[in-house]
Here is the input.
Amino acid sequence: MARVVITGAGSINPLGRNVAETWAAMQAGRCAIGPLEFRDVERLSVKIGAQVHGFVPEDHLSRAEIGFSDRFAQFALVSARQAVAQAGLVFEGELADRAGVVIGTAGGGLTTSDEAYRAVYAEGKNRVHPFVVPRLMHNAAASQISIALGLRGPTLAVSTACAGSNHAMGLAFQMVRSGATPVMLAGGAEAMLCFGGIKAWEGLRVMSADGCRPFSADRNGLVQGEGAAVFVFEEYDRARARGAQILAEVAGFAMGADAGDMLTPSVAGAARAMAGALADARLAPEAVGYINAHGTATAANDRSECAAVRQVFGAHADRLMISSTKSMHGHLIGATGAVELLACLMALGEGVIAPTVGYRVPDPDCALDVVPNEARQARVDVVLSNAFAFGGLNAVLALTRV
Amino acid sequence: MASAVADEIIAIIARQAMLDAREVRLDMTLDELGFDSLVLVEALFAIEEKFDVTVPYNANEPDETDFDISSVGAVIAGVEALVAAKV
Here is the structure.
């Protein structure tokens, strides 16, 4: 089986317009959560979120790309171009035929749907823009990237709620490792910060109205974000042969289902995914220095996730660091694992552990080193990235320093 | 003498073709303007929005309709007829 490495990373998210800005914000412990700004926000009970401000599509994308794309696909395209530029790849000939794209998203073009519904139901209009369908399809982001960069290999969307990015990146990893393709672009994209998007989430009563405080005893729910991140997954020997910069090795991946409750997380399911990723990577639990937590700041997730970490790591749970960067960029739902992978790359490559900001009160149910409020310098060789979705779907990646 | 409807339609077509309105002539075909099927669909949408009419055009059966899209002038005549029929 081939070894798989990451040779490019790109992102636009609430913390930054690229990877460097995102890392700087994570290192500074900056929180991008603030008042939501969009139409009808006054009719919501949840009025905070982490938006990407100042994004002007015309600065990044062609007229045709803008015409065919919802905001989520626009974020994905910008991120993919950054990642490929860093990797220094040009997709031509056989490489173009074999390389593909897999992008996770939960809402797809949800803003497009929301606006079209508003037009026909609320405003009584009898027509919507002709490109509503190509904009709202969940595969739009993957397709737009394939078209823009000329990738003709396996290209698809993955939609597994809050684990979409990790499933997408896990599939890309497995495809490159198996030899099915030498290069995949993988990540996630989400843009559901609009009236209908938040209104639906309000109904679940899992959202915080005042802030995201993962692992803190006074946490009261998740806060949504938006954005995208895309990575170049490349076969190791190929990357070495062409002298590419290697950001990290993707060493293992595991996914599974709780087969239990639609919303309540399972300790056993989360533990099985973490242990599975380590087994897939042939790594001992003691090798792990940092876990990027799912850490949604809901009462149930954080308690359950910490119990799962204890179950998998035993005494080593007290020696590793675990943080939730959702405290800074919010929960990007289908894109969250991709943006959180940036924190993993920063830990491995820069020796900086992103903090859990907003942490105020210790919770005995979350008594781990959650890197509260301030980033930390530390050398780590192995990291895990957790994602546990509604629907009971779990996906964990293991990465190592090369 | 061009009507107000004609001026509006020429402006919409010019915007879709990324041309100056003065470069659009009534005898031009949509092919000459560089329209593909999707640009046509966007232009028809813009016309429908502007004049609050429904243009009878199905991309699967472009010839099975009375609405003539063979030239800029034909489109203008078709839309003028639809606008007149509204009143």
Summary: Chain A has a mean pLDDT of 97. Chain A touches chain B at residues 63, 67, 126-127, 129-131 (CB under 8 Å). The longest helix of chain A spans residues 71-87.
